[in-house]
Design a protein that fits this description.
Length: 218
């Protein structure tokens, strides 16, 4: 990566690296990919949700009462998986953030133009206090950035501040990162790896191949 971005967080730790090795290897079967991917998504989601506003509430333990920190109750948390591969994040997301709303985004990549084509949109909801929304858009692969940008645009058009929007991806490319920050400099990107480049078919090199195929055995 030639450029550096303040809002890009590359999550690096031994468990992340081990999980990446597992999902990248062409010798890992579907179940192995899923298990390692879920481990990875949980860690990435922990990192991504560090921006959630907190409050204090009275808690009674068996020993004493005290004021404990917790997540603000009056915010709306949205997890937006880009179908289909982005779904792998939702199992972990609903476990660790039971109050989150899941808003699916269906896009596939036109293999010729590499542009996203919509087929499902669960996002169009009224947004009363957009500054109280915290959005996490999930997609394992940030390749050209076209799909992620399209999804971010949808939320920004509803008035949700860029600083409350986060793209959460496992493997990314420098092109994708540059493209996203060029249009949306104030969003946050959480990734586990930044790979070398895209090939002529828009796949990340070395990457993990087609994430949807690897996760769903197609
Ligand atoms: N989508 C994938 O699943 N893999 C890539 O390498 C790029 C986009």
């Amino acid at each position: 990566m030639e450029k550096t971005y303040a809002n890009l967080k590359i999550v690096e730790n031994p468990i992340v690296n081990q999980s990446l090795c597992t999902i990248r290897s062409k010798h890992t079967d579907t179940q192995g990919v899923r298990l390692a991917a879920r481990k990875l998504t949980r860690i990435l989601l922990y990192e991504a949700t560090k921006n959630l506003p907190q409050t204090e509430e009275e808690v009674e333990t068996p020993i004493a009462s005290f004021k404990a920190k917790t997540i603000n109750h009056d915010i709306t948390i949205i997890i937006s998986p880009i179908l289909r591969a982005g779904l792998i994040f939702t199992d972990e997301a609903v476990d660790i953030l039971p109050q989150a709303t899941i808003r699916h985004i269906g896009m596939y990549r036109d293999e010729k133009t590499l542009k996203p084509v919509w087929y499902y949109n669960k996002v169009p909801m009224p947004v009363d206090n957009p500054e109280k929304y915290y959005v996490y858009i999930t997609d394992p692969m940030l390749a050209t950035g076209n799909s992620l940008k399209e999804a971010i645009r949808l939320y920004v058009q509803k008035g949700i501040p860029q600083k409350n929007i986060c793209g959460v991806c496992m493997i990314s490319s420098p092109q994708g990162i540059n493209a996203v920050f060029e249009e949306f400099p104030d969003i946050t990107l959480i990734v586990a790896a930044v790979d070398s480049h895209l090939n002529e078919r828009g796949y990340i090199v070395p990457g993990m191949g087609d994430a949807g195929d690897r996760i769903y055995n197609t």
